[in-house]
Amino acid sequence: MDNSSGVGVLDKAVLVLNALEAGPASLAQLVTATGLARPTAHRLAVALEHHRIVHRDTQGRFILGPRLAELAVAAGEDRLLAIAQPVLTQLRDLTGESAQLYRRQGDVRVCVAAAERSSGLRDTVPVGTALPMTAGSAAQILLAWEDPDRLHRGLRGAKFTAAGLASVRRRGWAQSVGEREAGVGSVSAPVRGNGGRVIGAISVSGPLERLSRSPGRVHAGPVTSAAERVSEAMRRGSQS
């Protein structure tokens, strides 16, 4: 199927954006992903950066820029958030713990939706909070299915290992015991979009005195089920 619009420069710019949808990319990685000539890929990425459609992370890699998020908010069409919010509420009610949805943005993960436990000791992560990609079960999920080069770069300074991420891929969920914050545990599972690509992580988190030193033993089932429901709804929406 020919995806050309007939406007060559626009089609090439979309190739760049499609490549960055998978995560941060150097210029060399953009060239490989898009098939564009290096000068063309660079010229387009820099032009998109000028309009804030593309941005750069702390390592100088190209990432999707803030203008895209602004346009999504303005259009009110962020399907993932709309689908996930009621699922997070159900997950909170089922587990009795705070539930969150995280997305990766460059070198951090951002809480984009949450359902907080209403009372008692809790782990509060306000929407908009940026957390490191080096600790926590959601970081493990968002990194575990990256390509090998990005995965190993992401392990620098991380509190988890390549072997740990291999276990995450095998079982389909991750747990954290005091990685991000002492006394806090969490369990996360992947939300997948088209082609099975991981586009987010659903989590529950709370104090270890409730979650124990093995939080996945209790919460892996409901967290994985919640993530699968969101993933299925995202797939159905893309086919309609």
UniProtKB/TrEMBL annotation:
It holds the Pfam family IclR_C. Keywords: DNA-binding, Transcription, Transcription regulation. The keyword Transcription applies. Residues 7-66 form the HTH iclR-type domain. Residues 229-240 have a biased composition (Basic and acidic residues). It comes from Actinocorallia aurantiaca. This is IclR family transcriptional regulator NdgR. It comes from the Bacteria. Residues 67-236 form the IclR-ED domain. InterPro entries: GAF-like_dom_sf (IPR029016), HTH_MetabolicPath_Reg (IPR050707), Tscrpt_reg_IclR_C (IPR014757), Tscrpt_reg_IclR_N (IPR005471), WH-like_DNA-bd_sf (IPR036388), WH_DNA-bd_sf (IPR036390). Residues 210-240 are annotated as: Disordered.
